[in-house]
Amino acid sequence: MTVTHTSIEKPSLDIASVVNRRAAGHSLEAPFYTSQEIYELDLDVIFGRHWFFCATEAEIPEAGDYVTVNVGPHSVIIVRDDDEEIRAFRNVCRHRGARLLDQGCGSVGNIVCPYHQWTYRTDGSLVFAEYQPSTFDREQFGLRPVHVRTVGGLVFFCLSDEPPSDFDEFSRFVEPYLLPYDLRTAKVAHQTDIVERGNWKLVMENNRECHHCDVSHPELLTAYFPFNRHSEEDVPPRMRPLYERYKAAEAALTATRTAAGFPQEERRELDSRPTGFQLFHLPLDGAGASLGKGGEQVCKKLLGSITDPKFGDLSLHMQPNAWFHFLSDHAVVFWVQPLSPGETLVRTTWLVHPDAVEGVDYDVDALTAVWKATNDQDRALVEATQCGVANPGYVPGPYSTVEDDVEAFVNWYVKRIRSSLG
Question: Which residues form the Rieske domain (predicted)?
Fold first, then answer.
């Protein structure tokens, strides 16, 4: 007897309905974290039409240095050309479409296609294409450019033909805060990649709050206070002494910034614009200098024109994929890249003064210890949450009073998706 199995086709997800019924102040429904359809929509709308932080200038310090970045089906080359300008191109040969550069980073004199050796300068112009007719116009077949911008040593690109125009205003506001750190000439001391088995939005949501910090991040709290957008009413009695120390450190940092002539305004525009961001200055605990034991420095040389090691942590949050910590003696740069509905790459880069010598001015293990531990702890939290949201028993829950940056991220995301759906 032959048994015939009839497959039941799963109905297509009604994305518009899922988006429109999102309850403000609550986490997202499960499909936002598990659906292949929403993941592909995220690649198109969020990562295809917004500015994407991808690297620091310190990663490509010399002419010909490059990094490649993959976003879904897209691959982009970020390269410093012979005139020291940062450029971005589609990582596709104009001949028959072969991928040009397969490594994540490197250095080239020219960009040469491995298939038929079409050759491009680092400004994207085509200089060699064999066996073409006399009518062939090389100028028409340069690499396809991608919009790219630098802000204080940070590199962003946008895949859209019409990127969000508010980036100019963001750049004008943020760059004066970054220039004293002189990130353009900084040196990469270390870089790590980890793959978290969780949706990219869960990675970002986890980053946008410190509600979990006092339980989950003991290493981080050797220097950081576990307060983020806490009012006095939010602080439980057990944490009152720590909160008082935090307020005293905050007042001392304000005085230090004022004495240094450092910009004072902080800005929180996480969900009110296409290029959502937040810039704020955090005091550090203990010695107040850096992430060493008791808040001590982890690099002897201070960045840029910073002269006082007790300069706190200038923090920048960017939608959709990055966050940054700029300290007196080093900077830590994070960005995420979605790999699948349930996998996300998290890259962390540590920058130090260009003249800082490993083993003399800093030790890599000491420099990276706090954030390596924290990244691994966050990885476990994200993966546990991914398991939870994939469970049929999951229903969206309400955010706490100290998770408004999470709500702002989710609200920004939903606005962008809803706008794309018309």
Answer: 51-157
- Confidence at 10, pLDDT banded by 50, 70, 90: low
**Is the distance from CB of 377 to CB of 216 less than 8 angstroms?**
yes
H/E element, 32: helix 31-34
Residues 239 and 326 placed together within one structural domain of the fold = yes
List Cβ neighbours of 276 (8 Å cut-off, separation of 6 or more): 269, 270, 318, 319, 320, 408, 409, 412
Sort 263 into a burial class: Cβ within 10 Å, 0-12 / 13-18 / 19+: middle
Domain region containing 368: 169-390+399-420
What are the distances in angstroms from CA 393 to CA 12, 117, 396? Answer: 21, 55, 10
CA dihedral 305, 306, 308, 310 (to 10 degrees): 180
Any idea what DSSP says for residue 289? S
Task: Work out how many domains the chain is built from and give that number.
Answer: 2
Residues 270 and 317: beta-carbon distance below 8 Å: yes
- Residue 19 domain-assigned (yes or no): no
pTM of the model: 0.93
pLDDT tens-place string over residues 163-219: 999 999 999 999 999 999 999 999 999 999 999 999 999 999 999 988 887 788 888
Q: What is the pLDDT of residues 29-85, one digit of tens each?
A: 999 999 999 999 999 999 999 999 999 999 999 999 999 999 999 999 999 999 999
C-alpha span between 6 and 325 (Å, rounded): 55
Quote the strand ranges of 7-144, DSSP E.
52-56, 65-71, 74-80, 86-90, 105-107, 111-112, 119-120, 126-128
Give residues with Cβ within 8 angstroms of 26, minimum separation 6: 396, 397, 398, 399
Residue bearing the bigger pLDDT, 211 or 14: 14
Q: Which of 82, 117, 149 is the last residue of a domain?
A: 149
- CATH number for the domain that contains residue 367: 3.90.380.10
